[in-house]
Write a structure and sequence with these properties.
By secondary structure, the protein is mainly alpha-helical. Helices cover about 80% and strands about 0% of the residues. It folds into two domains: about 1-60 and about 285-305, no CATH class; about 60-265 and about 305-430, no CATH class. It is built from 23 helices and no strands.
Length: about 425
């Protein structure tokens, strides 16, 4: 068996292991170590394990991950998002589907502090789902809005997925984070338009909210969301202005979130301990998967798989549109079964040499990768955000109802992907100004 055959056999074994529900870190790590052993012997295999683990842990750019996770954990644990939803609800209750629109916009705001689609869906779901169901909103619209709006957490910075992509692709993480702003806002805008049009055509989906709210009450509610722009300015402003690196911006944002919580009287030793524990636990799980993925990269590089794929792309002269379609198929299908971080780290060793051979802008390609990953957390049978929303909603909503509501948002995602493909400037304009 040639080295190339061993490499493709290893990829096939990984797919089989994932299909039988072996944890992704174990599947990637085991196949990589065995493959390296077969190609270079036991000394090289275990030597790579030691070197990869050390080099990964010593990577400065990845230190942004625990900082952004801590920022999101503090914001979630201290309830900063509650006032954001209330303000959005009071200002948006006059339009068709106002509560769903408020949920969508509040999720975009929370995404600018959190960086995780699952955390965004869980946090906003606990606040918005009981409110919308109590007002007689359609269950599919209610849960679909929360699940889909949660995906904004991966596009609007801070974004853990962009950090990991930037580290792997060796692209500036700050530029990647800024590149997600316009696509994230575009997604939120299309969601809003779709919700309003549907509720206008079918008022039964969202009965009008009969609530008398004075202008003074609206402004008071808006005044309570001052922590949101403070945290956004601390993170996005410092990166865009070149004042701080992504790691420094993450640390600044986490520190600012703690100060805001203290100022509001929402911080305690127990809450801070729980937030730090959440950040550490999530960071550990991400890093274990990432180390296994780097081992897979070493194995595939030695086997010659990346070189073979690059030559195939050059030989057939595949266009950017063809590659985007291929990416969509791979990510949407695999996204039905795998979590976004694991899927990205599994596929980048294969796709990255293809992107480079085709001459694609890696910033633009990174935005598309993250967008496809977030579409994957919505698609059945294992749409992660759908299961999170079902857990929050409890027995009041069936899982099939959640997926039924998500279908409309998937249609919006198709439009977003077409626009991002046809007009790369949507992703590249802001980074070009940095």
């Amino acid at each position: 068996m040639t080295s190339l055959q061993i490499g493709f056999t290893g990829l096939g074994v990984v797919v089989v292991l994932l299909a039988i529900r072996v944890p992704i870190a174990i599947a990637l790590g085991t196949v990589s170590l065995v493959g390296l052993w077969v190609l270079r012997g036991p000394t090289a295999a275990f030597g790579s394990l030691g070197n990869v683990t050390y080099d990964f842990a010593a990577s400065w750019s990845l230190s942004a991950v625990p900082m952004f996770l801590l920022l999101g954990a503090v914001s979630y644990r201290t309830g900063i998002t509650g006032h954001l939803y209330t303000a959005a609800r009071l200002w948006m209750n006059w339009i068709p589907g106002g509560l769903a629109v408020a949920t969508n916009l509040a999720s975009a705001g929370f995404a600018a502090m959190c960086g995780s689609s699952v955390a965004t869906a869980a946090a906003m779901g606990r606040i918005a789902i009981p409110e919308m169901l109590a007002r007689g909103y359609d269950k599919g619209l209610t849960t679909g809005t929360v699940a889909a709006a949660g995906t904004l957490g991966a596009l609007i910075p801070p974004s853990v997925l962009f950090i990991l992509y930037g580290w792997y692709a060796e692209e500036p993480i700050g530029r990647l984070l800024i590149a997600g702003i316009l696509p994230g806002l575009l997604t939120a805008a299309l969601y809003t338009v779709m919700i309003v049009v549907r509720c206008k055509l079918n008022p039964a989906l969202a009965p009008p909210v009969r609530e008398t709210v004075t202008r003074a009450e609206k402004w008071r509610a808006l005044g309570r969301v001052w922590p949101i722009p403070v945290l956004i300015l601390a993170v996005i402003g410092s990166i865009y202005g070149g004042v701080a690196t992504p790691t420094e911006a993450g640390a600044l944002g986490a520190f600012a979130a703690i100060l805001v919580a203290l100022a509001q009287g929402r911080m305690s030793v127990a809450i801070l301990r729980d937030a730090v524990t959440d950040a550490v636990r999530t960071t550990g799980s991400i890093f274990i998967i990432a180390i296994a993925a780097v081992l897979l990269t070493h194995f595939l590089a030695l086997s010659g798989v990346p070189r073979f794929l690059s030559q195939a792309v050059a030989e057939y002269d595949l266009s950017g549109t063809t590659l985007v379609i291929a990416m969509a198929v791979v990510y949407v299908v695999l996204g039905m079964f795998l979590d976004p971080i694991g899927l990205m780290l599994l596929t980048l060793p294969v796709f990255m040499p293809i992107f480079e051979a085709a001459g694609l802008d890696l910033i633009w390609a990174g935005v598309l990768v993250v967008k496809f990953l977030e579409i994957g957390v919505l698609t059945p049978p294992v749409g992660l955000n759908a299961f999170v929303v079902k857990q929050v909603a409890g027995d009041a909503v069936a899982l099939t109802t959640v997926f039924r509501g998500i279908v409309w948002f998937l249609a919006c995602e198709v439009v977003v992907v077409v626009l991002l493909t046809a007009f790369p400037a949507i992703s590249l304009y802001l980074p070009s100004l940095m």
